[in-house]
Design a protein that fits this description.
single chain; 516 residues; alpha/beta; Rossmann fold; Serine Threonine Protein Phosphatase 5, Tetratricopeptide repeat; 2 domains; ten-stranded mixed beta sheet; 42% helix
Length: 516
């Protein structure tokens, strides 16, 4: 069943007539932050990726645009506005244009209405669905942007879901000083997202596209970027972070990184040890052993195996998987709430939002008070002990590597290369630098005119690999470029002694020290 996001049925009539309040309407429980919230929807294309073929397989007509459409929703800290506040139905209206920007208003309404009739009316019933449409929201269309720079949160929705599936959370974060950007979860070549690695990588590429778009926003502090994902989006965001170290924090709302261990294994560029962005994983009520067995999949240890990132795993016992979306909560019938009252599940949704906000404050705004709040027991925040558990684990240091040595040499001076290397070896006995790695490093320095630094790196190479004629040849090259002819000749001769076939050393010696 698709995410319950397409209740556009009777949209215009419901909003105009202000349907009476339904007893089961969802109201986001958290107070807003200090900022009014602005909202805009942008239709743009990722020209680097194709989406449609030249011929539409349904109509047989030629498509005018082949590039991938990326409907982009932006919530942002705003200034006071006299424009009317949005209602929930305004977000639902966007569904009709998310994969085709050429539709007119009537076509958009018809498509959204058809999806609602086919997929969701039978789930909630028309009374509950219509009552949700005029629910007031916080955002105002095209409000003026507040002054200042604000961290960026990319929101990745669940499988096949529209961008606004968690509009309440997006508005909440914007009111607390974040720019939140989202796009629909769409497959590589069609609207529906397949549950396979190609689909997840397509959504990860959408995340990368939105990060690029954030760089065009004057308000955005693109040095501080997080990605929050629900369900399938909580798998795609991990894939995105594995390839983009600009992502400084991850939020997974019952994310599918645990549900698809076989897809994680297939994405060989992502492992628990390579994901270093701090992670807040908010889990729903744990399944029973019998339910896990029915899945027929290996148990996932991804979160436990993340050793080099701060990890917070918050388990919300009142929340089944659907309850992580405020859209689901608006349209879910009573039977979906099982033994937990609807009011308690709604309140738990608010606790989830509190944790997301504090986590982002801690890691994107460097807010020490927020970090303290995160590490405190949930009961200290007024959350019943039976409802929530928190497991927090601090990151272990990354294994020593070339980058760490380079940072140390930038502080201490490159003349201390061997001593700094030995210090790192004492901390991590497995630390090693190959001759090839040192050789590439030295020549990188030569290319940017840093001859003296290059000399020190090549010296380190000869100390670590004393039988390598190439190491001494490279050291001689660095002396040669630095204008130290005597040292260059000395080390070219040493290179030839170790490797008499070294053509470069032979040629350079012939030029620097020609035979009489």
């Amino acid at each position: 069943m698709r995410i319950l996001v397409t209740f556009l049925l009777f949209f215009a009539a419901a909003v105009a007539q202000a349907a009476p309040r339904f007893a089961h309407s969802f109201v986001f429980p958290n107070a807003p932050g200090a900022f009014p919230v602005g909202f805009k929807a942008i239709h743009q294309y990722d020209q680097a990726r194709a989406y449609r073929g030249e011929i539409d397989p349904a109509t047989g007509k030629r498509n005018s645009e082949l590039a991938r459409p990326v409907q982009t929703l932006v919530w942002y800290p705003a200034t006071a506005s006299t424009a009317p506040a949005m209602v929930y139905g305004d977000y639902l209206r966007l569904i009709g244009s998310e994969d085709d920007f050429g539709r007119n208003a009537a076509q958009v309404a018809a498509i959204a209405d058809g999806i609602v009739r086919a997929d969701y009316i039978a789930v909630s019933g028309p009374e509950q669905g219509r009552a949700a449409l005029p629910n007031p929201m916080r955002a105002r269309h095209d409000a003026g942007a507040a002054n200042g720079k604000f961290p960026v949160v990319i929101y990745a929705p669940s499988i096949s879901a529209p961008a606004a599936e968690n509009a309440d959370l997006c508005e909440f974060l914007a009111s607390h000083g974040y720019i939140v950007i989202a796009s629909p979860s769409m497959g590589t070549r069609g609207r529906e997202m397949p549950a396979d690695l190609e689909g997840a990588q397509t959504q990860a590429a959408d995340i990368a596209f939105l990060i690029g778009y954030a760089h065009t926003l004057a308000q955005a502090d693109t040095r501080q970027v997080a990605v929050a994902g629900y369900s399938w989006g909580g798998f795609a965001n991990v894939l995105a972070a594995a390839r983009d170290r600009r992502i400084k924090a991850l939020v997974a709302l019952d994310g599918s990184v645990r549900a698809y261990p076989e897809l994680v294994a297939a994405a060989n560029y992502v492992t628990p040890l390579t994901v270093t962005a701090p992670l807040l994983y908010v889990a729903g009520r744990p399944p029973s052993i019998e339910q896990l067995a029915k899945r027929g999949k290996p148990a996932s240890s991804f979160l436990d195996d993340m050793k080099h990132a701060d990890v917070y795993k918050l388990t919300m016992y009142p929340m089944a998987h659907f309850a992580f979306s405020s859209t689901y909560l608006r349209f879910a019938p009573d039977k979906m709430f099982d033994q937990y009252p609807r009011a308690e599940v709604n309140r738990a949704h608010g606790w989830m939002a509190d944790y997301v906000l504090r986590f982002l404050d801690a890691y994107l705004k460097d807010d020490r008070a927020a970090k303290t709040w995160l590490n405190a027991a949930p009961a200290s925040h007024g959350i019943p002990a039976y409802a929530v558990t928190m497991e927090a684990r601090s990151a272990l240091p990354l294994p020593a590597g070339r980058q760490e040595l380079a940072v140390e040499l930038a502080k201490r001076g490159f003349e201390h290369a061997h001593a700094a290397f030995q210090a790192l070896r004492e901390r991590d006995a497995a630390f090693a630098l190959s001759e090839k790695e040192l050789n590439e490093w030295g020549y990188q320095l030569l290319r940017v005119g840093e001859q003296q630094k290059a000399i020190q790196i090549f010296k380190l190479a000869t100390l670590l690999h004393p039988q390598s004629g190439n190491a001494f040849d490279s050291l001689a090259d660095s002396y040669d470029q630095a204008g130290d002819k005597a040292a260059a000749i000395e080390h070219y001769r040493r290179a030839l002694k170790l490797d008499p076939k070294n053509a470069n050393a032979q040629q350079r010696l012939g030029m620097l020290s020609p035979a009489p």
